[in-house]
Every structure is written in C-alpha cells, then in structure tokens.
Amino acid sequence: MKATIEFKIPEEQHEFNLMLNAGILASVISDVDNRMRSELKHGISFSSIEETCEWVRHALAESQNLIY
Predict the structure, then answer these.
(1) Residues 18-44: what's their mean pLDDT?
(2) pLDDT top residue among 66 and 1
(3) d(Cα 3, Cα 49) in Å, to the nearest integer?
(4) What does pTM read for this prediction?
(5) Which of 2, 19, 32, 42 has the fewest beta carbons closer than 10 A?
(6) Where residue 67 falls among pLDDT bands split at 50, 70, 90?
(7) 36 pLDDT higher than 60
(8) Alpha-carbon distance 11 to 13, whole Å?
(9) Of 51, 60, 62, which is closest to residue 29 (Cα–Cα)?
C-alpha cells in the first residue's frame, strides 16, 4: 500500500511540519504517560493544580530533550 500526502507550501507549512514531527510528538506523549503512571504507582500526590501543571511541563521538557 502507498499513500501520498500533498501540502501547499507556504500556505500549509505548519501542517506539513506537524506531519513531519508526529513521531516525535507520539514519543513525547508516551514518555510522559509512562512517567505519570510511575509517579501515581509510587503514591505521589500534588497539593495543587499549579504543582501538577508544573510537573507535567517539566516532564514534557525533559522528554523533548531526550528525543532531540
């Protein structure tokens, strides 16, 4: 099976970039999901939504660094 995807550049440059980086995005999401599962398994609890958001942002940044 073959699939061809066409983009009108420069109008669809953003969509093209998203398609090129979809594998990286999937890896980052999977890594953060695994980290969250591990944290929950070991009983971590956050005292506020802000603390939770900061943890997720930190995990996302770390995951991106591992992939690049």
Answers:
(1) 85
(2) 1
(3) 43
(4) 0.64
(5) 2
(6) low
(7) yes
(8) 6
(9) 60
Q: Identify which has the larger pLDDT, 64 or 10.
A: 10
The three-class DSSP label of residue 3 is: coil
User: Which DSSP string do the residues of 4-53 spell out, in sequence order?
Assistant: -----TTTTHHHHHHHHTHHHHHHHHHHHHHHHHHHHHTT---SSHHHHH
Q: Which two tokens stand for residue 16?
A: 């093209």
Residue 54 CB neighbours (<10 A)? 12
The answer to whether the beta carbons of residues 33 and 63 sit under 8 Å apart is: no
Query: What amino acid is encoded at 68 in this protein?
Result: Y
Name the DSSP class of 58: H
Sign of CA dihedral 29, 35, 60, 64: negative
> How many angstroms separate the CA atoms of 3 and 35, rounded?
34
